[in-house]
Each structure stands twice: as structure tokens, then as C-alpha cells.
Amino acid sequence: MQVIPVAFRGERAVSAPLTIGQLNVAKWLAGSPNSPAALLDQRLPVPPGTPLPAVVAALGALLSRHEGLRSRYTMGDPGEQRVLAAGEVVLRVLPATEKDRLADLGRADPLDVASDPPVRFLAAGTAECITDLVAVYSHLVVDFQALMVVHREFAALLRDPAARLDAVVQQPVDRAHAERQPSRRRRQEQAMRHWSRHLRAAPAHLYARPRATPGPGSGACGMSSQAAAQALDHIAARTRVSRPTIVLAAWCALLHRRTGYDTCRFVMLSANRFESDLRDFVGSLAQSTFVAVEVAGAGFDELVRRTFGAVLQAGVNGAYHVYRQSEGTRAVMAERGLAPSFEPLFNSSVVDTRGFDAPPPRTPAPTDLAWADLPPTNILLRFDLGQIDDTVVARVWTGDTGRVTPSEARELLLALERLLVAAAAADLDPAGVTAALGLEPIERPPGWHLIDGCWVDLAEVQRLLDDALGPGAARLSGPDLTAHLADPALTPELAHERCLSLLPGRHAAITPRRYVVEPQDA
């Protein structure tokens, strides 16, 4: 293995507090330091015959150009980012036989962003010629749209080392200072009000349903569909709306049919790149935000339009101070007695830059579906969209295969594909949307009730009481969720606190609405 220094030299050495986006990632990493998403890896384009010096020069130019890639970071609120004016990052060059292991090798150890560069470079090839190149970043310094900027600029610099790239309008340090201006603070306050308003109305788990099998498990069903990709092109040509938004509309139609909710209200990620001076920004901007899509009574094209408006509204309210937002969230969750997962129920890493011209139809390859087991998680249901060009690559995953079985995850993906294919030929009225999905509503037996917008299994709430307070310590009565406390030492406040602490991961339960201490016999 060769270790090659990649030198950089910028225009300034400067420091600032962390940006709102960096704070968001820093807080998340503090709670999940070993999460696979703590690091993002990227394969950079290297044409055949590319000499090593050209790769080193292009990487050095990128480091010099984007201050966030040559900074050191102190976590916390407000934290600090310190831009280095000059320095170097090493490029590890391994034999060509190691090309398929570059990402794994780069992710083998955590990045210490306090003292080390927030990016690693690994290449495969020889001292003369590079065949493959991978960069591994801390999520603190890039999101998926930032990766696209780096990919585009690296390719341009490799083609022409003297390429004149557009000036970077805003660096992370500049972003941090801008976010502290009064107008930006007002927008952050508005975003927190948006979050709080929807948190007070959203169900704890939009897809709460009876258990189908007793065993726990976590996994994902992935789909590769050329038929869905072709359908998206035709729908986009007709509606003039981006393809990821169309997929989200179809997903909301599916959720509406299965769950019965007229408004699909859930968490998704906002890229927060609505400002023109963030087009070439390399940093982490994405944050979770609530989206609320009114589905009831809409045909497919109307639903696409409604979804587009809902996504814009969510994006406008997608940037906030995560530490302050967390305080408010905890208060609302305790008040409502909920423990929702704030992982995005819909997550797209796709940026649709193509136009709206539909290509000529062709015979699609058969759709491929595959299940994979995953590490445990509290997520009940999530949809990931990873590709739309030529093939739709998506997956449905769950942390509770007893409620969302592998076969159901497969059927949800196929239903989504059926709806897109049916909507490609022409707009569908509400009945046509339902027919295309080919799904039945979730069946809920006696003992299930809709309480505070949440589908709740009374038996699961009783199990929560038994686990939190001890068997026989509390009895649940009726759909009003009153807990009758048999132990006089248990105050309502203490009982509620204990129930809240054991609520995460119980997808069919919320805490009792009332706690009543039963009188003791004389």
C-alpha cells in the first residue's frame, strides 16, 4: 500500500459555531455513534488510464475549494468548526485486486473529526495509474446532495485541471453566521412551530396493525423495477412534477388505503436547498420534517399535485435548532403519551435532474424482489427510494416483522409498482387508484380503537402497564384508556413516567389517558 499526501491550501483559516445542519448530525451521532449512517462512502469517477498525479491534483482542488472538508469539529451546542488554511489528507493506494473492498476499508474505523480530517480517500491501482477511487466522509460534512456536488466537480477537474468552476457562494462557516441573523431565527421558530403542530396531530405509528406472527425481527425487501421507472417517466411528462414526488404520492395512496387515514402525516427528510446560493454547497443540510398529504377524494394526478405542495410546505419548515426542537418534542410526547420513531417513513436519496420528456417505451426486464435481514430497530415501517433512472430501486423495511412480515413488505412494493404502471397510461380517479393498488384495508379485531389519532390495541396497553408497574398493579378499563392503580404508593405521575420509559418499540400502544388510584379497603 502507498500513502500519498493530498495537499490543500485555502484562502482563510477561520472558525464559527456549528451550522444547524451540523448540529442536527452531531446530536444524532451523540446518541448513535456506531450507526452505519455515521459515515457516507462515495465512488468517484475515474476513467481508464487516469494517472495518479491527476487524481491527487483533483482531490487537492476539492479540499481547497470546500472548507467543510478541511475543517476540524467540536461537538455540542453551539460546538465549533475550525477551517484549516493549509494541510494535507492522505490517499491510500492499494493493489487493483482490492478495488471492491475500498469502501469497507475506509469505513472500518470511526472518524475523529475533532483532530483528524473528516474525509478519507482510498484508491486501487498502481503508482502510475488509478482504476478506482472511494471517498469516505463523516455525515457531519456531507449529505447526499453534497455528494452529488463533489462527484460532478471531481469529474470536471479530472477532465480539465484548469476547469473554471462556479464560485462557491456559501461555505459552512458563512452558513453558520447567516443562520444567526434575526430573519433566519424567525424562520427557525416557524419551523419548530410546524414540527410541534404536526407532532400534536400525527399518529405514533402511521402503520400500526395487529401482529401477524409472534416472532420479532428486522429486515427489508428491496425492489428493482424497470416497469416502474418507465411509468414514472410518463407520469412526470404529464404532471410536470419530479419523479420522487410522484413515488411519494403513490406511497401515500397506498398508506391511505391500508390504514384508513385520510391525511398521511409522517416524518420525511428535507434537503433544505431551496436557496440559490446553496446549489454547490458541500455540507450537511438535510433535517427531518413533517409532511402532511391530504389523500381522501383525490385522483392520482390531483394527489401528485397535493403531494408536491405538501413537500414544499415541509421543506420551507425543514431547518431548525435541533436541541431546542428536542426539548419541545419531549414535552409533547409526554403530554400525549406517545413514543414515535422519528426515522423518516419516506426517505429519498434521489435528486431528479432530468426533464419531463418520456423516452420511447421498451419491454422492461422482470421485476426483482429480495429480502434481507437487518439489525434490530424500532422502526415499524419505512420506504427508501434509491434510484429512478432506468430502474426504480426501492425498499420497504421494518423493525417488527411480526407486524410487517416479509411477504407483506413484498406486496406493498408490488402494489406501488401496479399503481405507477396503471397511472402511466392516463390519470386515475379515486376508484381507479384503489383498483390499481389491489390492496385491502388492514383488518383490526375487537380490542383495537382509534384514540388520539392512533390505532391502539388495548391488550398491548395492558401489557405495557404490567411491564412498567408490575403484574396486577394496574388494570386498564375501556377504550377511554383509564388505568386503575391498585398500589397507593403509585402516584399517577410516577405511573405515567414509568409507562413512558417502556413505550418505545411498542407499535400498538400508547400510555393510558388517565390514572386513577383505587381506594383501599378499610
From TrEMBL:
InterPro entries: CAT-like_dom_sf (IPR023213), Condensation_dom (IPR001242). Pfam families: Condensation. Residues 55-325 form the Condensation domain. It comes from the Bacteria. This is Condensation domain-containing protein. It comes from Dactylosporangium vinaceum.
